[in-house]
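Chapter review: from sequence to fold.
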Amino acid sequence: MNLRFVTKTMHAYLDYPVAAALIGLPFVLGLGISNSLALWLSVGTGIAALLLTILTDHKTGIIRVLPYMFHLAVDALVGVVFVIAPFVFGFSGVDAAFYWINAAAVLTVVSLHQPEAATTPVVV
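The token string follows.
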């Protein structure tokens, strides 16, 4: 049984709501109590995620100039940054939990990515 079930298309449809959540949820949850950077790191990451999605060569990309594998690498990097940010910046309480939960979600989606089948050109 293959546990890698997140397809490129599934990932593409998740990108816009995730970017919106990264921008909006910090205000709804009142992030920034332990450090104001807890609010703005998420907002900045959400804006960057929106731009990355717009520029990615996948189903919901608008200006498809960035390879999807680059997009996945950036997502993985964001997941790692979100794991360590609470330690580096002294986030605590809901600030830290927000980043660790998001890190777990991002790293899970990236790790469950289903590689695309290699396509070989048909020679006639």
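Two observations follow directly from the output. Residues 8-111 form one domain. The two ends are 36 Å apart (CA to CA).
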